[in-house]
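hiii so um. not sure if this is the right channel but i have a protein structure encoded as tokens and i wanna go backwards to a sequence. like what aa goes where. can anyone help
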């Protein structure tokens, strides 16, 4: 996933820090898995910029009128931390994103204090090559980091959000060890849990709601199913819907509602940056494409011919291009074609959604909601069961959720 561009508004280096310095009476943690990546950096910088009034909240659905008075945590009340295996500090990463046109010129300097504060809360992730710790030891260590974050910062709660690189599709999932217990434990022996699921288990163990913004297994791993059900925590996922699939969730229902027969739907993605490198692995690309294919099956009622191809183009950096070619039949079998081009920066699209999901999930937790949140399907390619697939229906469900949150005040 990649990054955001907002209007340029250079300010003195201390301005944002001063306006964002007053702590909230009730602070909420946002613990990012992949905390030094492009999406996480954009989310932290963007939150600081919007909270300080430096930029408008473009792309943040929770800042629109239907979400007024829902009891959501304010942007200044969000405190960031996370896990990552990378070492590049957030201020430096923000400078790189600004140099690539992802963040506005001058913003990294304006929100340097907030970036540095978040970077100070990032803990080493894993497992790295040579790490001899068992799954249980890793889960315990990650959960301890979360509890320490909650305690030291005096947080009412922390939401764990996975924005790390996509993991390959798992083979033989469900074999090996037994399911994790109610505390999110992983028994010894057998195949190891993927890293995303280790972090998800740690979230449960620390009593933190969990959101999976990636196609990786995370909490969806079958060995964590019972732990998730028994946790009493809200959770949502998976795989953020920011570009090509967002468009598909609009166009698919259009063809179905107009009774037009889609014969084939093919797509191509050209992307660079960390996503391009990660998705150059065919197994990781397969995990990414599963959600793209699901939305067509769910909205069209059938799976048309065609596939999605993902190509790594390093020179694109944090930007991407997505093409779709849709062949369909009209009245009397007249053959027609619709072609679309989507060019953009994923982090610019993803970061406001991360902030939305943190706020919505925090409010759900505050109200005592537990289990999957299908009302948040609006944000995901592969949402939880019993969720609608068409974007319009998903938005209606989200508005209903907002009313439910508002009614609980």
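sure thing!! here u go:
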């Amino acid at each position: 996933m990649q990054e955001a561009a907002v209007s340029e508004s250079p300010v003195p280096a201390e301005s944002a820090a001063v306006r964002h310095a007053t702590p909230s009476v009730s602070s909420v943690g946002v613990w990012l898995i992949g905390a030094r990546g492009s999406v996480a950096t954009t989310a932290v910088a963007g939150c600081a910029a919007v909270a300080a009034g430096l930029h408008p909240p473009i792309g943040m659905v929770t800042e629109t009128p239907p979400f007024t008075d829902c009891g959501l945590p304010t942007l200044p009340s969000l405190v960031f931390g996370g896990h990552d295996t990378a070492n590049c500090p957030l201020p430096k990463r923000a400078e790189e994103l600004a140099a690539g046109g992802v963040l506005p010129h001058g913003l990294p300097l304006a929100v340097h204090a907030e970036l540095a504060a978040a970077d100070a809360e990032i803990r080493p992730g894993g497992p790295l090559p040579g790490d001899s710790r068992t799954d249980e030891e890793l889960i315990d260590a990650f959960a301890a980091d979360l509890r320490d974050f909650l305690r030291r910062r005096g947080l009412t709660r922390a939401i764990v959000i996975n924005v790390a690189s996509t993991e390959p599709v798992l083979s033989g999932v469900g074999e090996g060890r037994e399911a994790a217990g109610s505390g999110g434990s992983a028994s010894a022996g057998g195949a190891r849990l993927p890293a995303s699921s280790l972090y998800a288990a740690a979230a449960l163990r620390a009593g933190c709601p969990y959101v999976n913004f990636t196609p990786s297994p995370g909490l969806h791993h079958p060995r964590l199913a019972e732990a998730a059900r028994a946790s009493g925590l809200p959770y949502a996922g998976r795989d953020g819907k920011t570009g090509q699939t967002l468009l598909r969730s609009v166009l698919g229902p259009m063809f179905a509602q107009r009774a037009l027969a889609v014969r084939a739907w093919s797509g191509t993605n050209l992307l660079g940056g960390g996503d391009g490198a990660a998705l150059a692995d065919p197994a990781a690309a397969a995990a990414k494409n599963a959600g793209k294919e699901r939305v067509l099956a769910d909205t069209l009622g059938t799976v048309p011919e065609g596939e999605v191809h993902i190509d790594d183009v390093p020179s694109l950096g944090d930007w991407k291009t997505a093409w779709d070619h849709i062949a369909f039949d009209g009245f009397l079998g007249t053959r027609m074609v619709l072609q679309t081009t989507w060019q953009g920066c994923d982090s610019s699209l993803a970061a406001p959604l991360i902030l939305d999901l943190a706020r919505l999930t925090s409010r759900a937790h505050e109200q005592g909601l537990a289990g999957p949140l299908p009302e948040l399907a609006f944000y995901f390619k592969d949402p939880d069961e019993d969720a609608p697939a068409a974007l319009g229906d998903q938005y209606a469900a989200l508005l209903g959720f907002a009313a439910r949150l508002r009614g609980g005040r």
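oh and The mean pLDDT is 87.
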